[in-house]
Amino acid sequence: MVGSKEKSKEKRDKRLQEISLLRTIPYSDHQRWWTSETVAVVTGANRGIGFEMVRQLAGHGLTVILTSRDENVGVEAAKILQEGGFNVDFHRLDILDSSSIQEFCKWIKEKYGLIDVLINNAGVNYNVGSDNSVEFSHMVISTNYYGTKNIIKAMIPLMRHASQGARIVNVTSRLGRLKGRHSKLENEAVRAKLMDVDSLTEEIVDKTVSEFLKQVEEETWESGGWPHSFTDYSVSKMAVNAYTRVLARELSERPEGEKIYANCFCPGWVKTAMTGYAGNISAEDGADTGVWLALLPDQAITGKFFAERREINF
Ligand code: NDP
């Protein structure tokens, strides 16, 4: 008998095969809303999924800004793509450092004026395999949630007003899901609050992560109903998912011609430094849904969660 693990592996492999076929179909002139003047920014792009998203977006003909918190590593990564003929530029960006964010925005304004796509990929995780430690919770929440939020807020005024809308894509994870078979969240009150998209606010999301960090400090988190594996990382991604919905709702109030669409996606379990190269898919496959979302032709999809080019539940 085929077990459920084998079945889901079969399903995943089949979907990945479909997607790699889809990737071979070029965008038609009608779908292609972008030109070589279209500017995309990818955070944490010196390696892994971020680097791949830069490569793929530049391959589609956009101008892509590869950012990295380490200048030398970032310059080297950009050089690889530049030497391959891709239109890639580099600037340093540490999403944890407000002066680095300011300096980056100033540079964008001076060199490019405006941007069209922002991909928030930078992130950290300190739990590998089945280890679970909350020792680095502060760093994980600060980077993955607050860092992402801060760069989004800084970049919104620099996003181009255009009929096809500007796009924000947040790289999150199924580990941050609130519902369903894979959700590890047991705290019903948190689930109810984060699920209620109409009354969800940024303040509610902030309060949720503050409560988690307080419980970590007081060493009471284990009975708090938080996920018991990849705990801090899951909470951080849950927060980014929720914030994506709040952001999308707020941005949808902008007038026609000034829209910004915000979505998030899970890349899957990817062979990168973050997983100790233990994932089951390549960075190339992991990057796919993010690139697809950033380039969606003529549709106003916003506030949704995706994986393998399909919408999934939060
Ligand atoms: P990597 O560790 O290879 O890449 C993470 C990137 O984020 C690195 O470039 C890292 O820089 C950068 N980064 C970390 N902190 C900051 C910061 N403060 N400012 C700017 N950049 C920073 O991992 P992945 O490529 O796997 O991860 C990319 C994204 O995908 C992350 O958001 C991750 O959570 C998410 N993800 C990954 C999954 C996987 O299976 N790999 C699954 C689900 C989600 P540096 O090199 O200097 O450390």
From TrEMBL:
Its EC number is 1.1.1.-. Keywords: NADP, Oxidoreductase. This is Short-chain dehydrogenase/reductase. Gene3D superfamilies: NAD(P)-binding Rossmann-like Domain (3.40.50.720). It holds the Pfam family adh_short. PANTHER family: (+)-NEOMENTHOL DEHYDROGENASE, SHORT-CHAIN DEHYDROGENASE_REDUCTASE. GO terms for cellular component: membrane.
